[in-house]
Design brief:
Chain B: This is YibE/F family protein. The complex is a heterodimer of chains A (about 375) and B (about 250). Chain A is α+β, with helices and mostly antiparallel strands. Chain A is built from 11 helices and 5 strands. Chain B has helices at about 5-45, 50-70, 75-100, 125-160, 165-205, 210-215, 215-250. The termini of chain B are far apart. Classes of the chains: A alpha+beta (about 375), B mainly alpha (about 250).
């Protein structure tokens, strides 16, 4: 019994697996050479002087200095290595402790005849690309066709976000962008995952309606409470119209969760209708409800955990600063919790909505109510 | 008092009870348990306990409570809990070198103003905390996939108990693949919202494309999403194999 045979569907594909694994390793090792180089100067750390840093435990309350010797790797003239200073603290909350071999993106300012350099940031793209390649490999290995489709969908959705961002920055109204964005997101993701058919239509409509209801409930609630509790200033970026951004984030986040449930319900209803010839409307509804209830719990928790994870560093810092739990829950975590709750409302609402739409769209033969 | 949150949570409870019945009510409370365990976990970490070990314990606790509460204690929930633990450890190991090198811990200097009320000089090494963030972020999705697979496999076996390991495994993998698409989207879109905000903000700061994609915040979101995807992928064969083995062993 060969494990490879279990995972892949073609008989000879364990040869392909090993070949691709080999190529993968070669690609990852040479990743720096494969990526395009930038216009901005890049320095490679060839040595670090940490004279002032103790070998033993670092104090959390001090700043430590690294003197980095960098070799400029994409300047036209061969230049001498440069020395730059880097400060870091034990927590590395706002700083980094660099290692030899890492690449830094620099900014060059020419003062007279001398070039001066500052550190802009660590060159992180190689790490992201490497992990992305590993993800792609696993997606195809474990996920097969669906894995590849998921990968394409992730990249596509990323691209769509970039486009929306660009349009928004060019003053296209968010009230126009949001519905269009939602439609495009639903269309792209759904057709990739479930194909271009009635099931997808049912799931899409269920998603759209569930989303609409959830956002409406949120909006009405905020209006009635005077937005008390929605602390826009806690958004960890500064932007001129936080309210718009909050709603848009809310819409996108809720969308993903609702799509999942909608697809599950629509698929199940289609499956039941395909395999059974004696199913009644009543049975369909009860099966659909059961399926929805099965997923409800884990889906809402998935959403909550995904949102809460982002606030972990802030919460830890707050705990260390002696800020009370009550304050944290009411003020700092308010946005995350609100997103989670509203998303969950959307999830729960979309169960009956998608169920009804699926039955109406997919059930073509009229059934008698009692069998 | 966070009025909006209380009102909306109340609405959620009513909806879950109405639409979900008893199951819905239990699901609602499991959400509360999850948030509680989450806060307790962070309290422990801030008190100095090893972040990674405490998070693994907390993850197991969350899986167990979530699954046992909603689905009961049975082979499916037990196997799911074990598979989840294995999957998140593996995800951690795979992503460790890249995430560590990429230095995405803490906050970026763009956020200094917002956080000026707090001191960054604390005795927590935020580079360890990054992994906690990633694990917690994908935990829910991984639990979801695990229980979906094990439940479905159990149904199959109940219908036809003559199925052998290979057949069960193949079916489990197929089930996992079917869910893969939508689950990835759930996580993707949950993080995509934040991602969008970051892009907007950076563009107001006039960051170049290069600066944007190499920035700590951007990289952080990207890693969250990719690691989430890896976690969801890994749980599929793990849960399938363990469940198939458990089911066939009962002969």
């Amino acid at each position: 019994m060969n494990i490879q045979n279990l995972i892949s569907t073609k008989k000879s594909s364990h040869k392909y697996t090993f070949l691709s694994l080999f190529l993968l390793v070669i690609l990852l090792v040479n990743i720096n050479d494969v990526l395009p180089t930038y216009q901005q100067p890049i320095g490679e750390i060839i040595s670090i002087d940490e004279a002032g840093v103790p070998d033993t435990e670092l104090s959390p309350f001090l700043d430590y200095k690294q003197i980095l010797t960098l070799k400029l790797i994409n300047e036209e003239l061969s230049t001498q290595p440069i020395k730059l200073e880097n400060e870091f603290s034990y927590s590395q909350a706002f700083s980094n402790r660099y290692e030899v071999g890492q690449l830094l993106i620099l900014r060059k300012t020419t003062v007279g005849t001398k070039n001066e350099y500052d550190i802009v940031s660590l060159k992180r793209d190689t790490y992201m690309v490497s992990l992305l390649i590993i993800f792609a490999f696993l997606a195809v290995l474990i996920g097969g066709k669906q894995g590849a489709k998921s990968l394409v969908s992730v990249l596509l959705n990323f691209a769509i976000v970039f486009v929306i961002m660009y349009l928004y920055r060019n003053n296209v109204s968010i009230y126009l962008l949001a519905p269009i964005a939602v439609i495009i997101f639903i269309f792209t993701s759904m057709t990739l995952v479930t194909g271009f058919n009635k099931k997808t239509l049912a799931a899409s409509l269920g998603t759209a309606l569930g989303l609409l209801f959830a956002i409406t409930i949120a909006y009405v609630t905020f209006k009635l409470t005077g937005s008390r509790g929605v602390n826009y200033q806690e958004m960890d970026i500064t932007i001129s119209s936080p309210v718009e951004l909050f709603y848009f984030q809310l819409v996108i986040g809720t969308l993903g969760a609702i799509m999942d449930i909608a697809v599950s319900i629509a698929s199940s209803i289609e499956e039941i209708l395909k395999t059974s010839t004696v199913v009644t409307r009543k049975m369909l509804i009860s099966s659909g409800r059961k399926i929805g209830n099965d997923i409800m719990g884990t889906m809402t928790n998935t959403l909550i955990l995904a949102y809460l994870s982002g606030s972990i560093p802030v919460i830890l810092l707050m705990m260390k600063s002696g800020i009370s739990l009550g304050y944290m829950m009411n003020i700092s975590l308010s946005l995350e919790l609100l997103r989670g709750v509203i998303g969950s409302i959307g999830i729960v609402l979309s169960i009956p909505i998608t169920l009804l739409i699926s039955i109406v769209l997919l059930d073509k033969v009229p059934h008698s109510e009692v069998k | 008092m966070n009025t909006s949150l209380i009102v909306l949570t109340g609405i959620l409870f009513i909806l879950m009870a109405t639409i979900g019945g008893a199951r819905g009510v239990r699901s609602f409370f499991s959400m509360l348990y999850t948030v509680t365990i989450f806060i307790v976990l962070l309290i422990f970490i801030s008190m100095g306990f090893n972040p990674l070990k405490t998070t693994l314990i907390a993850s197991l606790l969350i899986s167990v409570i979530l699954l046992f509460n909603i689905n009961g204690i049975n082979k499916m929930t037990i196997i799911s809990s074990i598979s989840v633990l294995i999957a998140i450890i593996l995800t951690l190991l795979i992503s460790l070198p890249f995430v560590k090198e990429a230095r995405i811990q803490g906050f970026s200097f763009e956020q200094v103003e917002q956080l000026s009320a707090m001191s960054a000089y604390v005795n927590i090494d935020l580079s360890e905390i990054v992994f906690i963030e990633i694990l917690i972020g994908l935990l829910g999705a991984v639990i979801d996939v695990a229980i979906s697979i094990t439940s479905a496999m159990n149904e199959l076996y109940v219908i036809d108990s003559s199925l052998k390991f290979e057949q069960l495994f193949k079916s489990g993998m197929k089930i996992g693949r079917d869910i893969l698409g939508t689950m990835t989207h759930t996580l993707l879109f949950a993080f995509l919202g934040g991602f969008f905000s970051i892009l907007i903000w950076f563009s107001t700061l006039n960051y170049t494309f290069v600066n944007t994609i190499n920035s700590k915040l951007f990289a952080s979101e990207v890693f969250h999403i990719i690691c989430g995807g890896i976690g969801i992928l890994l749980i599929i064969p793990i849960a399938t194999a363990l469940m198939a083995a458990t089911l066939t062993k009962e002969k």
